[in-house]
């Protein structure tokens, strides 16, 4: 079978009519002049016609002995066109890149045809946008909480959930004849351990969650490459930041009262005192105490509980959350704002001295 | 953030001869906070001439996202505004402390601490942390912190505890386990 090369210029045609038969003119390849492979051409801005290749010329092209890419034609897939439209991707985002984002490393080991490089780039971008959001919005967040918040937004599980919400389906097996609009990856046998050193090699198969997350990362990288920085920021805001996360639920203090005392000592505040604000049903089966923790005249936090100790500890926890969840008053300027417009006004983010060490 | 007082209402007792009178007696007027200009139980003399908003949210635990004034950094514009409001208010009487406040006296020096350690090492069965705390006028926590007991005594005490625990029945074992689990959740793990 001939290797089929597709170009970004066909994307517009395809969007208008997915069933249109596309002419494939034969182009004579001269020895000089770098000829881009399909993946790089899809990423380049100059429109190139589809063509057949007789021999590999690009040094990054696979050697002649290596297997040819799978014969999946992105232009014949209605699912791909639907996905492209559903994600509101710009026409400059070629359908071929979307098709490539759906091919996992386990389905096609050659990196020129799978999404590994795109997923790598997408992961870096997602990490950058996620980290800058949390570090600027909550500058005092402890490292562990920051990490779990990042995992909750741009970790494999939420990304896989995003992919499923986009309506991407998985191919049962990554054979060459499957629809190009399906997520293609090799499944692990049931009961395989996927964590730790017992995890089999990637070529043996990957969990669906991982393949789906890599697809979302690769799609994100495609937005960055084809549509630019502003579009990728918007895409991140719309698809990732629109998800809700209760950051205040990520804390777990082991010694909250002690940590609050250390905090007050460090910052030069009056030592905290727990005070009983209100109570009801002290001698009953279900009493409720409301305790506030005060530094001088100022109430730092309030907690309730069925015992004085519980209320006191919860009050300390809430006071610490009040400290760590501080957020600057006005909408903060994220550093990536300058990537879009270097001439824009920019207020630097607050940098905190760090969490309390107990 | 100001912690509000919870005002107590007069208890209502049933004591009317007829249901009509009782119903009439039990009929409650609107809470003063719901009446415009009626704060502190003062009835409004006239309806306000312009549109108004009654802000009377249901009682709820304060949000942890509202940073206390003290915790706002110096460069935060909200700090000065909130401090100005706080200063204008009269100094409210603070609620009673949960535990009796005490002054730390820091009266023990290196020599005393060394002596505590020596005593503890010589005869850990006699010089328990309670004894040391009593002798040196400090807390049991501090005594245990500066003068740790010997490994042999620790092991013996743990063995004794294990013997006691082995005598517990199913109900007590389960209750103690649940209590530990609940307590661990107070730090934020239980999501409340």
From TrEMBL, chain A:
Organism: Morchella conica CCBAS932
Database matches in PROSITE patterns: DS_RBD, RNASE_3_2
SUPFAM superfamilies linked to this entry: dsRNA-binding domain-like, RNase III domain-like
Cellular component aspect of the GO annotation: mitochondrion
Gene Ontology molecular-function annotations: double-stranded RNA binding; ribonuclease III activity; structural constituent of ribosome
Family: Belongs to the ribonuclease III family. Mitochondrion-specific ribosomal protein mL44 subfamily.
DRBM domain boundaries: 255-325
Subcellular location(s) of the protein: Mitochondrion
Protein name: Large ribosomal subunit protein mL44
Family matches, as Pfam families: DSRM_MRPL44
Superkingdom, taxonomy of origin: Eukaryota
Residues covered by the RNase III domain: 80-228
TrEMBL record, chain B:
Chain spans, region Disordered: 1-35
Annotated signal sequence range: none
GO molecular function terms listed in the Swiss-Prot or TrEMBL record: structural constituent of ribosome
Pfam family, one: MRP-L20
Positions with biased composition (Basic and acidic residues): 7-19
Cited InterPro entries: Ribosomal_mL58
A single Gene Ontology CC term: mitochondrial large ribosomal subunit
Record-linked PANTHER family: 54S RIBOSOMAL PROTEIN L20, MITOCHONDRIAL (PTHR28266), LARGE RIBOSOMAL SUBUNIT PROTEIN ML58 (PTHR28266:SF1)
Listed name of the protein: Mitochondrial ribosomal protein subunit L20
Species this protein is from: Morchella conica CCBAS932
């Amino acid at each position: 079978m001939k290797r089929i090369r597709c170009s970004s210029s066909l994307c517009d045609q395809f969007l208008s009519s997915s069933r249109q038969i596309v002419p494939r003119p034969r182009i004579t390849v001269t020895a000089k002049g770098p000829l881009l492979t399909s993946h790089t051409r899809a990423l380049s801005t100059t429109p190139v016609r589809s063509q057949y290749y007789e021999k590999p010329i690009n040094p990054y092209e696979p050697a002649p002995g290596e297997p040819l890419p799978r014969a999946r034609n992105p232009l014949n897939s209605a699912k791909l066109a639907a996905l492209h439209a559903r994600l509101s991707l710009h026409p400059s985002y070629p359908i071929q890149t979307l098709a490539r984002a759906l091919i996992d490393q386990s389905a096609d080991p050659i990196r020129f045809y799978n999404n590994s490089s795109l997923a790598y780039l997408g992961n870096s971008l997602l990490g950058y946008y996620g980290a800058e959001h949390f570090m600027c919005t909550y500058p005092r967040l402890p490292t562990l909480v920051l990490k779990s918040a990042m995992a909750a937004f741009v970790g494999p599980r939420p990304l896989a959930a995003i992919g499923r919400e986009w309506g991407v389906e998985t191919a049962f097996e990554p054979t060459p004849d499957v629809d190009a609009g399906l997520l293609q990856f090799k499944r692990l046998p049931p009961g395989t351990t996927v964590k730790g050193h017992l995890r089999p090699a990637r070529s043996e198969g990957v969990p669906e969650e991982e393949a789906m997350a890599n697809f979302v990362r690769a799609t994100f990288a495609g937005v960055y490459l084809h549509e630019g920085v502003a579009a990728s920021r918007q895409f991140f805001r719309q698809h990732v930041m629109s998800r809700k996360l209760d950051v205040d639920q990520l804390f777990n203090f082991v010694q909250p009262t002690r940590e609050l005392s250390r905090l007050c000592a460090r910052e030069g505040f009056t030592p905290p005192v727990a005070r009983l604000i209100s109570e009801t049903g002290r001698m009953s089966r279900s009493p409720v105490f409301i305790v506030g923790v005060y530094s001088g005249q100022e109430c730092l936090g309030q907690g309730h509980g069925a015992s004085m100790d519980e209320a006191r500890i919860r009050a300390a926890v809430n006071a610490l959350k009040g400290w760590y969840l501080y957020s600057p008053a006005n909408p903060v300027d994220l550093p990536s704002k300058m990537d879009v417009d270097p001439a824009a006004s920019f207020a630097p983010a607050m940098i905190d001295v760090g969490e309390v060490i107990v | 953030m100001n912690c509000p007082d919870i005002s107590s209402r007069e208890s209502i007792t049933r004591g009317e001869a007829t249901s009509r009178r009782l119903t009439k007696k039990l009929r409650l007027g609107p809470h003063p906070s719901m009446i415009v200009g009626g704060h502190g139980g003062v009835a409004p003399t006239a309806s306000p001439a312009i549109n108004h908003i009654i802000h009377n949210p249901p009682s709820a635990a304060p949000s942890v996202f509202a940073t206390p004034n003290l915790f706002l950094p110096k460069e935060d514009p909200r700090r000065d505004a909130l401090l100005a409001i706080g200063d204008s208010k009269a100094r409210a009487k603070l609620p009673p402390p949960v535990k009796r406040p005490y002054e730390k006296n820091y009266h023990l020096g290196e020599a005393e601490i060394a002596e505590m350690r020596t005593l503890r090492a010589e005869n850990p069965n006699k010089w328990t942390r309670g004894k040391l705390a009593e002798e040196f006028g400090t807390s049991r926590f501090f005594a245990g912190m500066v003068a740790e007991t010997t490994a042999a005594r620790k092991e013996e005490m743990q063995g004794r505890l294990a013997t006691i625990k082995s005598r517990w029945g199913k109900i007590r074992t389960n209750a103690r386990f649940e209590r530990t689990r609940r307590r661990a959740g107070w730090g934020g793990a239980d999501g409340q």
